[in-house]
Amino acid sequence: MNSGNVYAAVAAIFFLLMISCQAQLSSTFYDSTCPNALSTIRTSIRRAVSSERRMAASLIRLHFHDCFVQGCDASILLDDAPGITSEKTAGPNDNSARGYEVIDAAKSAVENICPGVVSCADILAVAARDASAAVGGPSWTVKLGRRDSTTATRSLAESNLPSFRDDLPTLISNFNGKGLNERDMVVLSGAHTIGQAQCRLFRDRIYSNGTDIDAGFASTRRRQCPRNGSDGNLSPLDLVTPNSFDNNYYKNLIQRKGLLASDQVLFSGGSTDSIVTQYSNNPRTFSSDFGAAMIKMGDIEPLTGQNGIIRRICSAVN
């Protein structure tokens, strides 16, 4: 091989290595370009959660709803615009997903110190971690380096996000399609240890007189959710410790006290019963597995390298 060919081969290898490195998310991604990014986001998220504790659940859910549609690319934050159909008005998000203004505030704070450096997608991922930690939940090392999408897809949000009506095989298939296994699905569902649900999402279950729901629990929940009307009435997903990030969610399922149908199917004689039992008995395992699953979820189809952009405002393309 002559020297020209050798040089070309070396250059090609170097280019491939560079592309490979760009595609890897890293916890140190902003260490040199914006060293105060994470502390700035944390301060902003703590402020929001301290003023409304429910916001912790909403921010975790926002990251989840982002990653399940087009990957973790902040597409959920985009408003309607020419060529963009916002995911905010998709069935699972409309009048339900919340916390957009919290992400906007965190983004604004970061833009003040490092303009055009930190992506909205990364802020969503960091916010979910900081929200969990702020209410006594697990913390984990967030991998960074995602870039933001220039598109959003309402139809994908309609089809890709799990439904409160889904049965166990449907949920397993949905999560498997995102590279998440049954254990990941069960542990991520444990985020329902905090937060609230609207009456319309659990009405059918509490009036079903089914064998999979504790009768006293159903009766108690009917007080906040009449058979007709009051669709938006809120009720804690976990009545026992509604503001604490703990493993009580799993204990509820074993007692047939899961609020949503899609919660209770995790303990209904199926393949996930043993995982629910394990987490109900071992809060430390739940905590460590939750962090690991959140890291894994954050790896779903990120835009890296030269793909995507860094949005200056999270709700609009630059």
Automatic annotation (TrEMBL):
Cofactor(s) annotated in UniProt: heme b; Ca(2+)
Coiled coil: none
Disulfide bond entries: C34-C114, C67-C72, C120-C314, C199-C225
Residues the record lists as binding Ca(2+) 2: T193, D238, T241, D246
Annotated binding of substrate, by residue: P162
Top-level taxon of origin: Eukaryota
GO CC terms: extracellular region
Catalytic activity: 2 a phenolic donor + H2O2 = 2 a phenolic radical donor + 2 H2O
GO molecular function: heme binding; lactoperoxidase activity; metal ion binding
Positions contributing to heme b binding: H192
Cofactor detail note: Binds 1 heme b (iron(II)-protoporphyrin IX) group per subunit.
Span of the signal peptide: 1-23
Entry keyword Glycosyltransferase: no
Binding site for Ca(2+) 1: D66, V69, G71, D73, S75, E87
InterPro entries tied to this protein: Haem_peroxidase, Haem_peroxidase_sf, Peroxidase_pln, Peroxidases_AS, Peroxidases_heam-ligand_BS, Secretory_peroxidase
Residue stretches making up the Plant heme peroxidase family profile domain: 24-318
One example of a Gene Ontology biological process annotation: response to oxidative stress
Compartments where located: Secreted
Active-site residue numbers: H65
Record flagged with keyword Transcription: no
UniProt KW keywords: Calcium, Disulfide bond, Glycoprotein, Heme, Hydrogen peroxide, Iron, Metal-binding, Oxidoreductase, Peroxidase, Secreted, Signal
Annotated site (Transition state stabilizer): R61
Family, per entry: Belongs to the peroxidase family. Classical plant (class III) peroxidase subfamily.
Protein purpose: Removal of H(2)O(2), oxidation of toxic reductants, biosynthesis and degradation of lignin, suberization, auxin catabolism, response to environmental stresses such as wounding, pathogen attack and oxidative stress.
Protein name: Peroxidase
Organism, scientific name: Fraxinus pennsylvanica
